[in-house]
């Protein structure tokens, strides 16, 4: 495939309205991504030469967002529908995507239980992301009122994990 054929392929994909096209042949791999709002010019074009003797390799996993201590915030409107009394609590949310663990290891006790008093900087749980275990520390002091996630469950970014009574 020569450069003129690649250019005509890019123009064809842009006119077709497709958002992404991947083409893999023996010696070349092409990915064309077009902008979602503009169909006249492509936004990104990636062309990779692959040695003929080598099989195409799997794409590298996406880079992990740096783990940070989690943020404490007042409950969102969706949290307040659980009960009016929940509005006085602080919701501790997940700072990353991963798997939630209440214990440091299977044979150890949980970091916190309902009713536990916590201080700023105390480890509340661990979230595993890409084989890395990230300690999630409290940004507030108070008492754990509710644990909103089951042990060994997947969690999303900004998903509520704990309700804390700051008083």
From TrEMBL:
The molecular function terms of the Gene Ontology recorded here are: acetyl-CoA carboxylase activity
Q: Where is this region: Disordered?
A: 32-89
Phylogenetic lineage: Bacteria, Pseudomonadati, Bacteroidota, Flavobacteriia, Flavobacteriales
Q: Which NCBIfam families match?
A: BCCP, PRK07051.1
In terms of InterPro entries, this protein maps to:
AcCoA_biotinCC, Biotin_BS, Biotin_Carboxyl_Carrier/Decarb, Biotin_lipoyl, Single_hybrid_motif
Pathway(s) served: Lipid metabolism; fatty acid biosynthesis
- This protein's name: Biotin carboxyl carrier protein of acetyl-CoA carboxylase
Q: Does the keyword Ligase apply?
A: yes
Domain Lipoyl-binding as annotated: residue spans: 89-165
Q: Does the keyword Ligase apply?
A: yes
Cross-referenced Pfam families: Biotin_lipoyl
| Organism, as annotated | Flagellimonas halotolerans
Q: Which gene encodes it?
A: accB
Compositional bias (Basic and acidic residues) = 79-88
- Low complexity bias locations: 32-45, 53-78
Keywords, sorted A to Z: Biotin, Fatty acid biosynthesis, Fatty acid metabolism, Ligase, Lipid biosynthesis, Lipid metabolism
Please explain the role this protein plays, according to its UniProt record: This protein is a component of the acetyl coenzyme A carboxylase complex; first, biotin carboxylase catalyzes the carboxylation of the carrier protein and then the transcarboxylase transfers the carboxyl group to form malonyl-CoA.
């Amino acid at each position: 495939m020569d450069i003129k054929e690649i250019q005509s392929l890019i123009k064809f994909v842009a006119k077709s309205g497709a958002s992404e096209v991947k083409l893999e042949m023996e010696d070349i791999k092409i990915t064309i991504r077009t902008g979602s709002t503009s169909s006249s010019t492509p936004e990104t074009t990636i062309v990779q030469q692959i040695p003929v003797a080598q099989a195409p390799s799997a794409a590298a996993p996406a880079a992990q967002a740096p783990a940070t201590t989690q943020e404490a915030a007042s409950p969102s409107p969706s949290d307040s529908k659980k009960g009016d009394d929940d509005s006085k609590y602080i919701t501790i949310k997940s700072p990353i995507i991963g798997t939630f663990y209440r214990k440091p290891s299977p044979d150890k006790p949980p970091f916190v239980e309902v009713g536990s008093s916590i201080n700023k900087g105390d480890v509340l749980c661990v979230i595993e992301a890409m084989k890395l275990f990230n300690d999630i520390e409290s940004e507030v002091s108070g008492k754990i009122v509710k644990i909103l996630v089951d042990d060994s469950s997947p969690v999303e970014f900004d998903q509520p994990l704990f309700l804390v009574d700051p008083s």
